[in-house]
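Justification of resources, computational component.

The compute hours requested in this renewal are based largely on the per-chain cost of generating structure records like the one below. Each record pairs the submitted sequence with a full structure-token output. That output is archived, and it is also reused by downstream analysis tasks.
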Amino acid sequence: MSYLRFDKTVMTNLEESLPREVLRTNRSGAYSSSTITDCNTRKYHGLLVIPVPELDDENHVLLSSLDVTVLQHGVPFNLGLHKYQGNNFSPNGHKYIREFDCEKVPTTIYRVGGVILKKEILFVHHETRLLLRYTLVDAHSATTLRFRPYLAFRSVRQFTHENGVASQDYQLVDNGIKTRMYEGYPDLYMQLSKKNEFHFEPDWYRNIEYPKEQERGYDTLEDLYVPGYFECPIKKGESIVFSASISEMKSNQLKRMCESAIESRTPRNSIKHCLVNAAHQFYNLQHGEEYILAGYPWFKARARDTFISLPGLTLAVGEIDEFHTIMNTCIKAIDDFIDGKPISVKISEMEHPDILLWAMWTIQQYGKYVNYEDCVKRYGTLVEKIMEFLRNNKHPNLTVHENGLVYTNGRDKAVTWMNSSSYGRPIVPRSGYVVEINSLWYNALLFSAELLEASKIKEGKEMAEKLRSEAELCAASFHDVFVNEYGYLLDYVDGAIKDWSVRPNMIFAAALDYSPLTKPEKKKVLDYCTKELLTPRGLRTLSPKSSGYNPMYTGPQSQRDYAYHMGTAWPWLEGFYLEAYLKLYQRSGLSFIDRQLVGFEDEMKLNCISTLPEMFDGNPPFRGRGAMSFAMNVAEILRIYMLLRKYKEELV
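The structure output for this chain reads:
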């Protein structure tokens, strides 16, 4: 049985099937996403969603969905499904679904009387082309397929409604048509691999409803334009490929392209293979530069997410060349920021105070899992440049104080990863000495000293001794400022203001390779995280015992903002927790870590299948929330798998 298979009992029960989503990307910014029943429940869903840089920096839904109708003896059986206003579903095509499988590509099996039809969907890598292959597995009489496209031509953040401006013009192309609803958009080419008849019957389908948007407190209704339908006969055993793209291709090549693309896909037959496939979806090649998208469907490339995700998404799956390629893009952003120039690549939030420290951590992971000699050659100069910039207080919002700690101002603007805001003000105003930033700073001082010593240059050795001396001062001050009499770490300290909340940010002090804590202190931090923050889906952002605990990420935007970092659970934090656990307990901790990772296995079949969402509610049943696929979560679980594998290999 397939690892990601759902039978008709799940598929025909909309309470079970509608929350499960599917995501496919072309690794160049475009994606295709819906639910496993093909009923769109978000405004971000669509069969062909692409960036249109000529218009803006957002993605745009061109082809929202495609309804396929089976015709036998003149009787139509529509396999589509849409939710309309008033909780009305039509045309209820899900009742014909017998099985959904996503091991290689999303595959749906329909049964209509004696007709068995298989549908497969895939996105061609680095090309804006979606392919859907329909195979008539069985039929006892003449069968015809009808393809009816629903068009949107709008930003993922907006809705389209019936209007007199939308163009109904179309032109015939090779076995299909091209059309464009509005000026400024590219033409949408819809082609079939077989000769067909296009019937021009323009109409608007009104008041289609997206329940996910309703849950989030947004508008929910839109109208979609249908220009008509394609119709062609199909024989038993025959396959027909439908292509949606912004460029035309020869229709006789569609079958070959589809077969080749399916053959190249890696099966998702385990949690690790699921996460490896998910990791590849975050790769984003644009104009010769490779990025990591922070998540789908609305995130772009953000600096912090990129550096935290990069080791897990590349090194952990053995893709070292990919690490180099993405890091080359990051280096341009780092150089621009340090040199005071506008950022020349599409990576945002470079100005935040912890970004360069996370970059140091990323390079450190490369040195550990590749080798330090190569790390010095490739990134030694960059490390020196970053440390010179930080140690000389050139950063606009990160200052090294005389006590060896680094100070940042986050009172008026959120500057850490806990960045939710309300009316322009941070909900969690983490300012002053911030615990994870100072943990990263201590780690960076000793890692840069280690690299300098590895370079075997006399001047490097002298500088390394100086950095170690600065690290000693930092460690002593770290104890004075953050370690309290209860054994956990304060989250931030700003003058007389001390945040006593039990938060997961202290775990970094125990997890990083260079820690300012003693072993007993690490154990106390780990114990607090275990008792008050650990859930089956990650570490809570706030202890239930702390004031303001708000674990349910539901309701309108303002309500969700106040829950975002006040009790929700994040899997990427558990990655560092498990790393700290492995370092502290070593062999005796292996079984516990294995059990924790197995806990994520169920998530491969929930929410967006084969990946991990942005966060989970902090209380049972720990429902997935936010973005359907989140890079840092996927990356950190993959990195823990790598750490476990390496540790077990060393034991042999």
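The first helix runs from residue 8 to 11. The radius of gyration is 26 Å.
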